[in-house]
C-alpha cells in the first residue's frame, strides 16, 4: 500500500504535530507533504523524514509568520503532486484536506477541526481582540476561504473526527459523516502518585482562547493554590489579575512534568477544547479533572469517575465547582484505567485498521 501523509504546516509544535509523529511512526516509509517546513523550529527527528513542501516554502518570512498568507494555502495544497499513491492521509486543522488526488486514490482526512478561523471567525476575532477595520478587510477573504473549504471537503473520501464535537462540526459545515478516533496520548509517561498535594494545575499555551484567566481569577478569589505551566502572549495579562496563591512556572522540562501532574489536587480545563491532550495525561497520572462542559471534555471527563464538569464558562461557575470538589471521592487507579482507552497504542491500532479497511474497500470498487 503506497501511502502519503499530508500536514498543514511544519513551523511550530502543537497537538497536530503529536498526531503527525504517531502517523509517521505507524507508516515510516510514507513521505510527508506540507505547505512550509522550518527545520530550526521543529524537533531534530523531523530532519530524517521524507518531507515535501509546496512553492509557499520559498516565500519570504512565511515560516515565522504564516498567518498573513492564509489566502495562498488553498493554491499551495492544490499544487502538490500526489499521483501514484493508493492512500492519502491528511492531518487537518487548516487547509491540507484540499489536496487533489487521483480517482483511484482513497483520501482519508483525520480532522482535528474544520478550519476554526474560517467557520467560527467572529468568536475567534472576539477572543483575539481583532479590530473592526481588520475584520472588514478580512471579510471577502474569509468568504472565499469558506467557499473553497466546503468544496475541498468533497474531495475527501472519508473523514475521521477527533471527538464527538468535531464530528458534529464536520456534519454541519461539510455535510459529511465521520468516525471518531481519539488522538494519541502517551499515558505511559504518567503514573499515579501515592499522595497528592493541595495545588490545582493548568498546563498549556497561555493564549486568550484557552481561558486560563478563569482559573486564575477563581483560585485568586477563593485563595486556592494554583500552578500555571506554559508560556504565551497572554502571560502578562494573567499575572496582572493573579493573586499570591497563583504561581507561574513557565515552560517545564518534559521529565519534570509527570510528577508535577501526579501531585496536583486536580487539573483544571477552563477552555473550550476540541479534544485536549493535557487533561487525559492528568487522568493517566490518576488525577481528576475539573473541566468546562464542552467539546472534547464531554468525551473524556466522566462525572464522578474521572472528574467533574462546570456548565458555564465563567469565574462563578468554575468557583462553584472548586468549592464543591472533593478529591477523596475519586479513585486514582480507576481514573488511570479510564485514561488508557486514549493511549497511543489504541490510536495506532484504530487508525491502522481504518486505513487498511478503507484501502481494501476501494480495491474492491476498482
Report on the structure:
It is a single chain. The protein has 14 helices and 13 strands. The mean pLDDT is 93. It has 366 residues and is α/β, with parallel strands linked by helices. Helix 7 packs across helix 12 and helix 10 packs across helix 13 (332-339). It folds into 2 domains: 3-184 and 344-365, Rossmann fold (3-Layer(aba) Sandwich), CATH 3.40.50; 187-341, Glycogen Phosphorylase B (Rossmann fold), CATH 3.40.50.2000. The strands form 2 sheets. The protein has a 7-stranded parallel β-sheet with strand order 3-2-1-4-5-6-7, sandwiched between helices. It has a 6-stranded parallel β-sheet with strand order 10-9-8-11-12-13, with helices on both faces.
Explain briefly what this protein structure is.
The protein has 366 residues and is an alpha/beta fold. It has helices spanning 15-26, 73-78, 116-119, 121-127, 132-153, 164-174, 212-222, 235-241, 257-262, 278-284, 297-300, 315-324, 332-339, 344-365, and strands at 3-7, 32-34, 51-53, 87-92, 106-111, 158-161, 178-180, 200-203, 226-229, 246-250, 266-269, 289-292, 307-310.
